[in-house]
Amino acid sequence: MLQKRFGKLAATTIAGSMLMAAAACGGGDETATTASPGATGTSAPAASDLKVGLAYDIGGRGDQSFNDAAAAGLDKAKTELGVGQTKELEAGSGETEAAKEERLRLLAQGGFNTIIAVGFAYSGPVKKVAAEFPDVKFAIVDDEAATGANITNLVFAEHEGSFLVGAAAALKSEKNHVGFVGGVEVPLIKKFEAGFAAGAKAVKSDIKVDVKYLSQPPDFSGFTDPAKGKTAAEGMFDAGADVVYHAAGGSGGGVFEAAKAANGKAIGVDSDQALTAAPEVRDVIMTSMVKKVDVAVLDFLKNVANGSVKSGPVVYDLKAGGVDYSTTGGHVDDIKSKLDEYKQKIISGEITVPDKVS
Fold first, then answer.
1. How far apart are the two ends of the chain, measured CA to CA in Å?
2. How far is CA 244 from each of CA 104, 230, 318, rounded to the nearest angstrom?
3. Cα–Cα nearest to 153, from 344, 317, 313, 341
4. pLDDT digits (tens, 9 = 90+) for 308-340
C-alpha cells in the first residue's frame, strides 16, 4: 500500500476504528466517480496558487511502490494542472506521532495550503494538525479515522484488486500452492490477504495458501526489510508454493529475489512492479495489484483547484478504476479473459469480496 508505504502507522488508529469513524461522519463513503456536492471552502484557488506539501511514509520517493505512486500523482499535477510550489518530506524509521505532527505542522506554517499525508500512520497527526489549520486542505491516503471539515480521506478497495491477483495466482500455479507475504499484521494489510485468498479459492477451492507476516505492530520494520521478505518467501517456495504475492512495501524486493532463485513467480503490489522493481527481478513478476494512489492524489488536487473538494472518504474501488491488475510482460495474457470475467462479476455485485480474513 506498501506502501515503506505503511511504515508510519499508529496502531491505535487502525482496525475497526476506521469503519467506526466513517459511520460517525454521518453517511456512507463516496466512490471516486461520485460527484462532490457540499465542497469545503468557499472559493477555488487557481492551480498555480496551490502550494502542495507531500508527507511520505517510510521509504519516500523511490520505494518502487506506494510512495512512488503518490509522487507520480504530484508530478502529474505539476504537469497537467500547473500547481505552484511543492515540497516533499520523508518519514524516518520508528518515528513518533509527534514527529509526524511536526512534519505536517511545518508544512502548514510554511504556507503550504494543500497537504497530503501518505499512509494511515498519519491518522492521528492529520486529525490534530488539520484542526489547528482550518484553512489548509488536507488529504490522507489509506485512512478513514482522521475526520474533519478540511480532511479528505483517499481510500481503496485493496481486497477487490487482491482477489484478481489471487485468481491469477491460482490459474498459474502448477502445484496448487501459493503464498502471501504481508509487511505488518494490521487490518489494512489483512484486506490484501483476505482478497488474495478469496480469489485463489474461487479458482481452486482446495488450493493451499501460505501466509506470513514479517512483523507485528508496533514494530513496522516489516515494510522496510527486504531480507525478511526474502526469507519468508524462500520458506514458501521451499515448502512447495510456486507463486507468492507480497503486500510488504520495500520488503517486497526480497520476495522477488526469492522467486528468482526458486524459478518461481511473484506478484507485486501498489505499482506495476514489473516496471519499477530492480531490472534483474522484473521477469519473475507475473502481475501486480495496482493501487492507483497517483490517480487519487491528482483527483484531490484537481478538486482543490476547482473548488469541489469535499471532506470525508472517497473510495477508489474496482468499479471506479481505483484498483486493478497489471499485464506488463505478458505473463497473464492467456488468462486475461478469465480475470476480466471475475472483474465484471465484482463490479456487478455478483461476487462480493471479503475484506477481512475469516
1. 21
2. 36, 11, 22
3. 313
4. 999 999 999 999 999 999 999 999 999 999 999
Positive or negative CA dihedral for 221, 316, 145, 158? negative
Residues 6+ apart with CB under 8 A from 171: 203, 335, 338, 339
Burial class of residue 87 (count of CB atoms within 10 Å of its CB; 0-12, 13-18, 19+) = middle
Task: Tell me the C-alpha to C-alpha distance, in Å, between residue 208 and each of 227, 335, 338.
Answer: 24, 20, 21
User: Structure pTM?
Assistant: 0.84
In sequence order, what are the residues at sequence separation of 6 or more whose Cβ sits closer than 8 angstroms to the Cβ of residue 245? 162, 165, 166, 169, 178, 179, 180, 181, 192, 196, 266, 267, 269, 289
**Radius of gyration of the chain from its Cα atoms, rounded to whole angstroms:** 19
Long-range contact set of residues 272-280: C-beta below 8 Å, sequence gap at least 24:
272/326, 272/328, 273/64, 273/65, 273/326, 274/326, 274/328, 274/329, 275/328, 276/64, 276/65, 276/68, 277/64, 277/252, 277/253, 278/253
Domains of the chain: 11-156+293-316 (3.40.50.2300), 158-290+324-343 (3.40.50.2300)
